[in-house]
C-alpha cells in the first residue's frame, strides 16, 4: 500500500477526529508527537476530511477512511450529484474511466451489478480500494491504470461507460473545448463505442453547451445539474445510432426539493416569446435553466411573458409555480439617476442586474444602496429598450 497505513492507527484517527475544529496553523506550530506519521500528513487528513463533511457525508461519518489530498476531494462529484448520475443508467457492467476518489463509482455500484474503477494515480487507486472496504462496497474493482489504455487492452463490453475528463493545466482561465481535456473523449469516441452503446460524460459547467454539441455526436440527452442554484455539472448522455434531437434536462437540487425543467433544442429555436411590461409578478429562472439556454421555452411552458429579448426575466398577473425565484413587483421606476438616488439612497436591498450596462457594485456605489434586507431591486431593460428599476419582494 503506497500510502502511510499508520494514519489508520487508532491513536492517530482519534487525534484527527479531536482536531477537526482546531486552527490548522496553530496545530502546525505545536508539532505534537505522533507515532509513525508527520504533522503534515495529519493536517492533510484533517483538511480533506473537513471538505467531506457536507459534500461527502457518507465518507465523513465512516470510520477508518483514508483521505487523499484535498484537491482530489474538491474535484470529485458531491454525493448529491453522484446519486443523480446513478439514476440515469443501470445494468450489469459499468466502467468508470477516470475514477478519482470513487464517489461516482460508489453510486454506480448501487445501479450496476459490477463496476470497474480506473485511476491512473496508483496511490489514489489504493486509497479508494481501502475506502471501499470500509464502506462495505464489494462490487467495485479498482484498477490503477489509464482508463483508455484499459479499454484498448480488453475485449469486454459494458452496459455503460462513464468518463469525467479534466481540463489541462495549460488552459486555466481560458475558454476551452472538450478536446482540450484529458482524456480526449472527442478523439476516442470510436474506441468508447466499440465497448458500449451508452456513454455518460461529465464536464465542467464552464463548458458552453453549444460548443459541446459541436464537438460531440450521438447525443441523446444533456443534463444541467445545479445544487442550491449553483450549476455544478454538465452531463452528456450519448447513445450509439441515436436519431432524435437531443433533449435538455435541467435540475436544481435544493433543501426544499428539486426543480426540474426539460425541453428540446429544436423547440427552443422555433419558439418566439411574447413581450410585456412588468405585471404583478416577476420570475427569474434558476441557474440550471439559464445555463441550458431555455430562454424561449420557459415562458411558453409556464404561460408567462418576457420583459425583453435579452432580459431573461418573465412576468405575469397570475402567480404560477415556477422553477426559480419569484417576486411580487411593488413598483416600477424610471432609470433616472437623481430620482433613484433620492428614492433609494441608504435603502437596504438585494440588487440584481439583468441586461443592464453596469455591475451590481457600480449601481450600489452610484446610488448609495446598502446590502441586505428583504427588498429586491432589479436593474434591467423593458420591451421598449428602456432601462428600468423594479422594486420587489420575494414570494418564493
Automatic annotation (TrEMBL):
- Domain named PG-1098 ferredoxin-like is located at 281-323
* MF (Gene Ontology): methyltransferase activity
Q: Which residues form the THUMP-like domain?
A: 324-394
Question: Which UniProt key words apply to this protein?
Answer: Methyltransferase, Transferase
| Statement: the UniProt record of this protein carries the keyword Zinc | no
Q: Name one GO biological process term.
A: methylation
Under InterPro entries, the record lists: PG_1098_Fer, SAM-dependent_MTases_sf, Thump-like
Q: Sorted alphabetically, which Pfam families does this protein's record hold?
A: PG_1098_Fer, Thump_like
Superkingdom of this protein's organism = Bacteria
Write the protein's name: Class I SAM-dependent methyltransferase
Amino acid at each position: 500500500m503506497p500510502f502511510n497505513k499508520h494514519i489508520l492507527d487508532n491513536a492517530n484517527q482519534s487525534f484527527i477526529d479531536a482536531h477537526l475544529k482546531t486552527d490548522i496553523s496553530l496545530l502546525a506550530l505545536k508539532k505534537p508527537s505522533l507515532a509513525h506519521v508527520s504533522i503534515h500528513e495529519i493536517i492533510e487528513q484533517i483538511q480533506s476530511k473537513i471538505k467531506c463533511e457536507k459534500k461527502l457525508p457518507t465518507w465523513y461519518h465512516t470510520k477508518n477512511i483514508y483521505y487523499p489530498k484535498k484537491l482530489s476531494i474538491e474535484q470529485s462529484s458531491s454525493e448529491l450529484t453522484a446519486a443523480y448520475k446513478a439514476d440515469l443508467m443501470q445494468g450489469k457492467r459499468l466502467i468508470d474511466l477516470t475514477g478519482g476518489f470513487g464517489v461516482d463509482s460508489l453510486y454506480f455500484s448501487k445501479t450496476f451489478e459490477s463496476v470497474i474503477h480506473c485511476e491512473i494515480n496508483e496511490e489514489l487507486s489504493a486509497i479508494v480500494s481501502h475506502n471501499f472496504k470500509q464502506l462495505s462496497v464489494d462490487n467495485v474493482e479498482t484498477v490503477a491504470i489509464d482508463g483508455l489504455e484499459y479499454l484498448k487492452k480488453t475485449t469486454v463490453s459494458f452496459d455503460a461507460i462513464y468518463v469525467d475528463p479534466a481540463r489541462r493545466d495549460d488552459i486555466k482561465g481560458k475558454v476551452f473545448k472538450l478536446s482540450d481535456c484529458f482524456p480526449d473523449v472527442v478523439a476516442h469516441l470510436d474506441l468508447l463505442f466499440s465497448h458500449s452503446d451508452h456513454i455518460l460524460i461529465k464536464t465542467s459547467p464552464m463548458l458552453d453547451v453549444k460548443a459541446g454539441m459541436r464537438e460531440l455526436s450521438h447525443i441523446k440527452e444533456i443534463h444541467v445539474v445545479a445544487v442550491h442554484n449553483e450549476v455544478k455539472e454538465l452531463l452528456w448522455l450519448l447513445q450509439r445510432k441515436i436519431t432524435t434531437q437531443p433533449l435538455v434536462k435541467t435540475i436544481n437540487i435544493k433543501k426544499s426539493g428539486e426543480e426540474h425543467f426539460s425541453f428540446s433544442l429544436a423547440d427552443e429555436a422555433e419558439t418566439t416569446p411574447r413581450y410585456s411590461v412588468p405585471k404583478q409578478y416577476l420570475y427569474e429562472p434558476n441557474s440550471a435553466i439559464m445555463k441550458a439556454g431555455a430562454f424561449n421555452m420557459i415562458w411558453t411552458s409556464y404561460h408567462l411573458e418576457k420583459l425583453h429579448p435579452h432580459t431573461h426575466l418573465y412576468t405575469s398577473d397570475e402567480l404560477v409555480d415556477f422553477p426559480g425565484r419569484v417576486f411580487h413587483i411593488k413598483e416600477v421606476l424610471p432609470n433616472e439617476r437623481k430620482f433613484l438616488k433620492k428614492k433609494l439612497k441608504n435603502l437596504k436591498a438585494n440588487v440584481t442586474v439583468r441586461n443592464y450596462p453596469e455591475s451590481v457594485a457600480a449601481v450600489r456605489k452610484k446610488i448609495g444602496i446598502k446590502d441586505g434586507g428583504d427588498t429586491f431591486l432589479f436593474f434591467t431593460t423593458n420591451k421598449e429598450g428602456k432601462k428600468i428599476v423594479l422594486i420587489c419582494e420575494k414570494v418564493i
